[in-house]
């Protein structure tokens, strides 16, 4: 599959008697964001370690950037970048020196290296702090510097492990913007995260891993549609209107404090039209209408039996 940046078939890995990955199939399309979710111990880190050539699989086939990770590890490493959960910057060096270190480890000419460093500092909004020790950087700045260092090698595929853990909301959204820009430029992102909102916002496709098995794959919307719970919420101006609507919509659940009704439905236009027609028939008018759908937290709980708060511990 020429459009696949990562193709995994039947991946298996065990440590002694403990099976960590049990027949994993993944297909990550080039130029997309793919997010792997799962509780602690599900096998996410082992999956990433296999894909990045750090751990050898016990079975199955794995191709990254068109190369077999078992027999062409060097070619795989030249095509990928890895940014771990904790920023791997040298705090004794300045931001510029950290980038220079990565240039020196590569094969760029001096002139090209200096130009690239300047471009990366500007791209990640680190120019003003370029000559300050990394120890003085905020968490968000360190994460940006870490990712900038990864880009020195111009990787086609970047593995991001918990890229926004510990960041404040503003820094997190800045990182999201950077990730989207990378993908817009053709880079493929393989993302692991404990923040389901992050996966929902960024990922083109999501896979949920639990106890070494994939329990679901799809777009965020496809995964949400697998979970029952979509409903229409109607809010009324008066108690009398709420009472009247409750009598007509006898399958609804009422919230007296909010003067609202929760009506089960699929959220489609056909069912919405039928619902409004029933209210019109009795001259009942709602003050406000909204369609509520399950979020990825609901999906995660339904698929793994655990909440994200438990999974993140």
Concise synopsis of the structure shown:
The chain has 313 residues and is an alpha/beta fold. The protein is 38% helix and 26% strand.
Largest sheet, in brief, is: 6 strands, mixed
Q: For the record, what is the CATH homologous superfamily label of the largest domain? A: P-loop containing nucleotide triphosphate hydrolases
Number of domains: 2
Number of helices: 12
Give the strand order of the largest sheet, numbering strands 1, 2, ... along the chain.
6-7-8-3-9-10
Listing every helix as H and every strand as E from the N terminus to the C terminus, the arrangement reads EEEHEEHEHHHEHEHEEHEHEEHEHH
What overall geometry do the principal axes of the alpha carbons give?
elongated
CATH architecture of the largest domain: 3-Layer(aba) Sandwich
Low-confidence stretches: none
Helix content: 25-40%
Average of per-residue pLDDT values? 91
